Amino acid sequence: MALTTTDPHTAVAEDAIPAPEGRTEIIDTDYEIGQDNINFRRRFVFELDIHNVVFSVSALSIVLFTFLTLAFQTTLEPAFTGLRNFLTSNLDWFFLLTGNVFVLVCIGLILSPLGRIRLGGPEATPDYGNLAWFSMLFAAGMGIGLMFYGVSEPMGHFTAALGGPVFEDGVRTDWAPLNGAAGDPEAARRLAMAATIFHWGLHPWAIYAIVALSLALFSFNKGLPLTLRSIFYPIFGERVWGWPGHVIDILAVFATIFGLSTSLGIGAQQASAGLEFLFGIPSTETTMILLVLAITCIAIASVVAGMDKGVKLLSEVNLGLAALLLLFVIAVGPTMQIIQGFFLNLKAYATYLPALANPFGREDTNFSQGWTAFYWAWWISWSPFVGMFIARVSRGRTVRGLLTAVLLIPSLVSVLWMTALGGTAISQLVNDGLTSVQDAALELQLFEMLAHLPITAVTSFIGIVLVIVFFVTSSDSGSLVIDTISAGGKVNAPVPQRVFWATFEGLVAVALLLGGGLVALQAMAVSTGLPFAIVLLGASYALIKGLLSEPR
């Protein structure tokens, strides 16, 4: 490595990331971005600029996996589901432990002098304003999850906790978190909200933050390509440009395409259920496929429009609609209970956090394995996509600023969202005796909760639009990320490649909806959480080592 002072006005190649501004510790490597690429720009009108190994192996393997899943579904689905269950049941302690490690690393960096380091160099300024930045990272991170689970998860934990522990033949069979709260509605409410916040608060965002910060540091400060392999330069050295790096990037593409395609299919199910609830349109396979195709077309249009006119604009629209729905529920729901509940739920989260995060000696195995370990594996499998997207829009932020914002702001918004929507649904059950939300299918519980509030048709329609637009932002930001990885780190690769990946996600989702393979794909996506958990532990070591080499 050589300490280098760079000129912020130095010309930057079209496909390269901006040069560091100010004094940074540039990594001296002979590798040039795109040197292993196959470039079709001069031969065909349809431009391509792809990493010959990562693109080819990823695309062919995903096609092969989809075909095999559909052709041998009766054999492969139980195999993938069994693998997922084995990992979450036998390695739940490992997932919980690694989640705790990532939170502690982030907190340690925030409190340490390393937090003053600026991504992009000491003279860099943020590429996006605070509102646009937050809108994009939140929409990409878990916006759609809050729509699907905002009502159903608090309600599910509340019901299980209220029932208390259940034993059959000496084995605990209930799904209540910790020891439950048998027969005590108020205690069950606190425990349910603490468990929900645990799954949507600091831990998942710490996973995303580790990936985002690592990528931003090694790309914007060290001058390496914006791909997952760059993080591991301190570990592998120049070998990272060979097969060790190929494997890391291919795994990242797998995890991203599997996670996005699965979520696209699940989101289509929720949107279809909402259309049937609101307009009487039958929630059939045809309806869901048409929704997937419509979402894919909008995502393609957004991808073609680019980061500022596409993803940024849609993310801001999304945030505005979500805020409108949230404020409406607070205003017409149990307002004082929601406001008080926000602070009480934060207190409950802090109280129960040590027990919920404990990886060893758990008696609530159904909860810790079927909920927490599953979630941690799911978040880890999504981390290449979300982390890279956050990194790409976070140039100019300090380490402390990025970590604080990524950990705290989305976590607090998630607490408010779950308190408002989930808390309102629980109040409808406990205070009003309404059981329709509790009895409804998961994809319908949001709409059933809104049905007991004024102007149901308007709010339910906003809910459907939010589900669709959240998926559009996830799809097009995911396409940008996959395209960058499969182009060897080029951030401005030809637009047709982004269109290819956005189309690919939709086609995989349609194929699996038609063939009933979504369960197998989701199980496979979660299973990628194990190798990526190991990858992220290595990334944490490389991140700290990289930060220590930076001038402060």
Could you characterize what this model shows?
The chain is globular. Helices cover 71% and strands 4% of the residues. The strands form three sheets. The protein has a two-stranded antiparallel sheet. The protein has a two-stranded antiparallel ribbon with strand order 3-4. The N terminus is likely disordered. By secondary structure, the protein is mostly helical. Helix 5 packs across helix 17. It has one domain: Amino acid/polyamine transporter I, CATH 1.20.1740. It is built from 20 helices and six strands. A hairpin with a 2-residue loop joins strand 5 and strand 6. The chain starts with a strand and ends with a helix. Pfam families: BCCT. It comes from Agrobacterium albertimagni AOL15. Keywords: Cell membrane, Membrane, Transmembrane, Transmembrane helix, Transport. Belongs to the BCCT transporter (TC 2.A.15) family. It is a multi-pass membrane protein.
Task: Please render the helix and strand layout as text.
Elements: E1 2-6, E2 22-26, E3 37-39, E4 49-51, H1 52-71, H2 73-90, H3 92-111, H4 130-141, H5 143-163, E5 167-168, E6 171-172, H6 185-200, H7 202-221, H8 233-236, H9 243-279, H10 285-305, H11 307-332, H12 335-357, H13 365-392, H14 399-430, H15 436-439, H16 445-451, H17 456-486, H18 495-515, H19 518-527, H20 529-548
Antiparallel strand pairs: 1-2, 3-4, 5-6
Helix pairs in contact: 1-9, 1-18, 2-13, 2-19, 3-7, 3-13, 3-14, 3-20, 4-11, 4-17, 5-6, 5-14, 5-17, 6-7, 6-12, 6-14, 7-13, 7-14, 7-20, 9-10, 9-13, 9-17, 9-18, 9-19, 10-11, 10-17, 10-18, 11-17, 12-14, 13-17, 13-20, 16-17, 17-18
